[in-house]
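Hi there. Long-time user, first ticket. I'm pasting a complex I've been working with (about 747 residues overall). I'd like to know whether the download I got is complete or cut off, because the file seemed smaller than I expected. Thanks.
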Amino acid sequence: MTLDVFKEDDKLFSVPIAEDSFDTYHLDPPPYSVETTKRELKQLYHDMTLIRRMELAADGLYKDRKIRGFCHLSTGQEAVAVGIEHALTKHDKLITAYRSHGFTLMRGGTVKSIIGELLGRREGISYGKGGSMHMFCESFFGGNGIVGASVPVGAGIAFAQQYNDANNVTIDLYGDGAANQGQVHEAFNMAKLWNLPVIFGCENNKYGMGTSVERASAMTEYYKRGQYIPGLRINGMDVLAVLSAVRYGKNFVQAGNGPLVYEYLTYRYAGHSMSDPGIAYRSREELKEQRANDPISNLKERLIEWGVFSEEDAKTIDKNVRSKVNDEVAEAEKMAEPETKLDILFEDIYVRGSEPQQRRGRTIDETYYRG
Amino acid sequence: MAAPRLFRPAARLLSSRLSAPRRPAFPQSACAPSILRFRGYATEGGVKEVTVRDALNEALAEELETNPKTFILGEEVAQYNGAYKVTRGLLDRFGPKRVIDTPITEAGFCGLAVGAALAGLHPVCEFMTFNFAMQAIDQIINSAAKTHYMSGGIQPCNVTFRGPNGFAAGVAAQHSQDYSAWYGSIPGLKVVSPWSSEDAKGLLKAAIRDPNPVVVLENELLYGQAFPMSEAAQKDDFVLPIGKAKIERPGKDLTIVSLSRCVGLSLNAAAELKQKYGVEAEVINLRSVKPLDVETIVQSLKKTGRIMCVESGFPMFGVSSEILALAMEYGFDYLTAPAVRVTGAEVPTPYAVGLEQMSFPQVDTILGQATKLLRL
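Hi, the file is complete. Here it is re-exported in full:
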């Protein structure tokens, strides 16, 4: 099938979405087509490739022992971060858990600031204080390390939007593991009770650490978990399905219809974190099968089929992305580490200008005093 | 005294109804260390190097073996063999009834463990780390620690909460906190914090056998560390008494009180003090945060006249604040210099390695304070 694609990059046209992309719960399905432009489609491809490359770079740096501690990669899940972002404006808010590199990049972080943070550098996005799990930027509330705890926080962000009469939406993401946490359900209740402009989103990558959803959840249809909140399950391996669903959900919420519970069916190629090879609890066949459903190749094939770009164009994008990531990683590696001074250690525990005058270090000699 | 007399008949009725069968006294022998019974350690030949991880694993296996009321539950404890492999092999050996994978729902499964304990079982509730136990701390304190008292002694709660505590390497603020002081402040809880493999095995077994809620604060950075384990400690009846500290290194010039991983750092510092200055520091491994072995600490400080506490918690209102206060209350007249503490810094743990190191005691931090204290 070749679509009637306009020559011009910015002209709107419609592309179809597969009919099995959505399952609904007390909700009409989103449109099975997306209004888009050639430019946007190429951008979607570019953005997913960029996240993939950045995550692979992080993987390499971790294996070179340059990144410490936890490092949770989102390879395989790129369509979720990219699809969501393209349905939002920068005034919409987003909060997620600890698999946050892709979202940070989409919300406005740069490859070098993210890699710099992973390397623990002063010019990292959190100045070397946060690391892999704790990255923040405008309209992006992190990067949160405690499973489930960010979900009511997301409801609070939506509460503030409603309070301020800002007609925007909050995307409140968590994993299938977190979906069972009590406070997720507490947040659902308040969101519906007060009609908050929030789209809860369960990124279901089928494993909470090494535990499959079937072994952790009495009911694995996470989009129905809101009970009294309409829900939608989305093929999270198709960036266009995600884009269509979030655009639709955003309109639904902005029209004052209250919250939604989305479930993005996706898959992480890597282990839970770098210390988990990710093969003890799932078979190589399963991994192979999932990789055959790769969100990036999925989109690429369709874009070629629709005549949006050629195989050559895709290769050019790949090449540009690769060299951009390589360059920015090199820049990040050149960034200085934070100086090991009390000034730096104690900075930003409190809002500047409101700090207590005295903070205590490890010993009385390391008491930090700022009169 | 008219009022109490009026109430006396009812009180007597109550006490007779609830006396012996409802509140059986706990047989102390169950927790008596086997070293007391077997008289001392075995010969050098019987000593084996065992990692803290394996010692904990052994303790769990032995208690699961001997006590059918004991089971372990937590995130990834069964099929994944434990996030830090402490429960490796237990599912295969004891089956899914005794070794249970829970969903990632700390408040829920912790509350469930408390309920099972109230109903007479002896659960071991593993937290992947104690950072996540903050999600469940209400259950630990309000449901587990206080129930025995609130019920007037009717309702015991034999539950063990365990998992790694304190900072690990490069995991930043939300995953690097020391909760010794938090749990240590709660009446109704017992709190132990092992350093060596013998500590780990003996204290965990004592915790499981103790009829009260016990918090076992392990340390991720110690899991892979091997320690010599005596022949007595290798036996399946080895338990350590909760509330007794251990003098890891005797000395006469300075008392260093420490716990968990900081014991190792303190011993290294003590060795350097000896080598560089000929000073003999006595290093006390607390082993138990609650109850605290005040006697051992005070005896030592009476001997040395100087006391320093080394720990990795936040400095304010912490374990060392408590020990310094006790030193003053019980040992003021014996102190020849003000007591000193080396602690974690008052900062959410930073990610960058240099800053992280500045946030926790290092050997040279301890050494620096010791030389100052001793005016060397």
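A couple of notes from our side: Chain A touches chain B through 52 residues (CB under 8 Å). Chain A has a mean pLDDT of 95.
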